[in-house]
Amino acid sequence: MAHAELAKVFAEVLDRQKNISLPEDISTARLYAAFTDGPALVEEERQVLLKSPTLRYQCVDVMKQINQEIKDHLEQSQIQLDITPLAAAHESDEYHFSARDFDVYLYDKSDSDMPLIVFLQLSPKMTSFFYQATRVRLYDSGGLDWIIGKPDKNGQIIGEWLDSETNLVERSKMYSLHIEPI
Length: 182
Hints:
This protein has 182 residues and is an alpha+beta fold. The chain is 36% helix and 24% strand. It is globular and about 55 Å long.
């Protein structure tokens, strides 16, 4: 079964789950702390989260609140979150797109049967607004996600581009690139 199909089935099962009364509920403040800079959820709390659809919806709301706070802080600090359509600096099999607060590199090794490598480097100023659990999405204004992931301690996210039908370099000439915490 494909990963997407399995995820769909799992989501359907969880959506049909009935709420059960649990002896210890987890407060919104506790969820906020766990997803920001507080202590992580302990095993018992994770079990409660698994068993309670209402609590999972609260988690989604808390994550949306945290992501909006991060976006607001980034905007107030004038962090650059996009690159306008442009020709990339090109050196043999490397393409570089640069903004004040992040850089995108594409490494094309297709001649050696390797996938395109997408490398995102975030500035320390930008990552200073992120929490340990913050994930980042790099996408173009055409709606295509280039890479999604959690930055490492150096503010880097690295991934493979496996869709040989879509040329990211050509897309970069038509669409602007954007960063978004998710």
